[in-house]
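Regression test attached.
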Amino acid sequence: MKFLFFTGKGGVGKSTVAAAWGRQISRQARVLVQSLDPAHNLGDIFGVTADSGRKKISETLTIEEVDLRKLSREYLERETRVLGETYRYLQVLNLDNYFSVLKYSPGIEEYALLTSIERTLNAQTGFDYVIFDTPPTGLTLRFLALPSVTLTWIDRLIRIRETILEKRYTIGKIRRPMKAGETPAEERLAYDPGEDAILERLRALRENYNRLNGLLRGADCSVVLVFNPDLLSLRESCRLAEGLAELRLPLRLLVNNKVTERNRETAERVEQALRKAAPGVPVERVPLSEALYEGRETVLYRIENDIGERF
Amino acid sequence: MKLSPISLLREFLIRLGDHHRESAAALTAVEARELENIFALLVLGSFIGLPAPPTFLAVELLPFMEREIRILNIRAEDAGDMLAEMCGMLGIDG
């Protein structure tokens, strides 16, 4: 299964280009186009209502609008339940409800996004291509950086945890073994890595994020950067290209969208600047379609023809 | 029950051995406790303004960290009397 991320500044036409691309590839393969943007318009592009669910456009093309708020809520409910079970005694005092404040924690939205991508990648969904229409730059970079950032933390925490267990093991070895019925003067702590719940959880998380990072940096993943011929879009696209390079994520194509006769000169300048920011990455130009009012089919058809086949 | 001199001697030697073992383990125990404190501080550092790991990582580990939070609490309470803490660690109680 191959997967593509369509990224770029808000309003550059990521969803439309992703939709056109998805439709073109769906002539030869089974495609899922998934919108991760909190402001969905994938359904509008195809003229259907996909309200937070999957919708089949044709035999080989399916679209999905992911409800991020629902995902965040589900994740927090799960975690709050585990907390509530661990600190069950708080239920006596009716204090367990206070854990619900966790839903205001920063970073939960990015985590929900990543969870959604992970779920799609892991599920044997029967698609040959999965196209992700991502939210605007800031959030996209943050959630794409999440596996690397988290892995750095997890590695460090695992090292500390292992040292703690080594120390406990040393203490256990120095102290003589307990006789039957004897009560220890001090609490005897587990030192076997298999018995330490925290280390086990950390190791499971590390394995998970390593696999996800491998997938994101692998040969089957491609990032497409969509931009417009204007300076604001250029600045943000340069930042995005730099961010992607830093995270070692494979930027494979630049799409210069909404090019007209009037802005052709700016389009060229913007392209040149972006070629410097992302050397060796090919650029495709997509003219501005005036046909929006004639019907959605025309827009998608034109973009499909302009971009051609690449993946 | 009356103990024979030999069992009394054995008991005395076991207790003496325990005492030496405890002294030998004490410093490592302090080190282990401090490491647990650091671990808790790193995971829950945002409470006191330290750079913290991504929130969800702290949330994932929180259910298993009762002991660490307890140590963190005790260490915070003892932080005001570091001299006593050091004396206790070095076995100075006179």
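Expected vs. actual: identical. The radius of gyration of chain A is 25 Å.
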